[in-house]
Amino acid sequence: MFRRPMRRGRPLVRAAATTAVVAGTATAVSGSMQRHQMEKDQASQYDAAANQAAFESQQQMQEMQAQMAQMQAQQAAMAAPVAPVAAPAGGSNDLLTQLNQLAQLKESGMLSDEEFAAAKAKLLS
Questions:
Q1: Residue 36 lies in a domain
Q2: Count of Cβ atoms closer than 10 Å to residue 68 Cβ
Q3: The model scores a pTM over 0.85
Q4: Same-domain pairing of 18 and 54
Q5: Separation of alpha carbons 27 and 92, rounded Å
Q6: Domain count, the chain
C-alpha cells in the first residue's frame, strides 16, 4: 500500500487563514455598523437642534405679533377722535380755558394739528 506523507503544516495554516478572514470580516462589519450608528446619531442631533431652533423662532414670532397687536391697539386708542368741547353760552373765561385744554391735548400728542385746528374753529365759531 502506498501511503501519502502527512502534511502537518497546511491544515494549521489553512485554519489560521480562515480565522483571519472571519475576524477581518467581523471587524469590518462591526466598524461599518458603528460608523452608520454614529451618522444616525449625528443626524438625529442635528434634527433635534433644528427643531428646537424652529420652535424658538416660532415663539419669538408669536411674541412679536402680540407686541405689534398691543402697539396697534395703543395707537388706535391715541388716534381716536376727541369729542370737541362745546363752548358754554357764558363768558370768555370758559372759552380761554377750553382753548388752553385743547393746546395741552395737542402738546401731549393726543390731538393732531388737523384735529386741533378743527376743534379750535368749532370753539371760536
A1: yes
A2: 10
A3: no
A4: yes
A5: 105
A6: 2
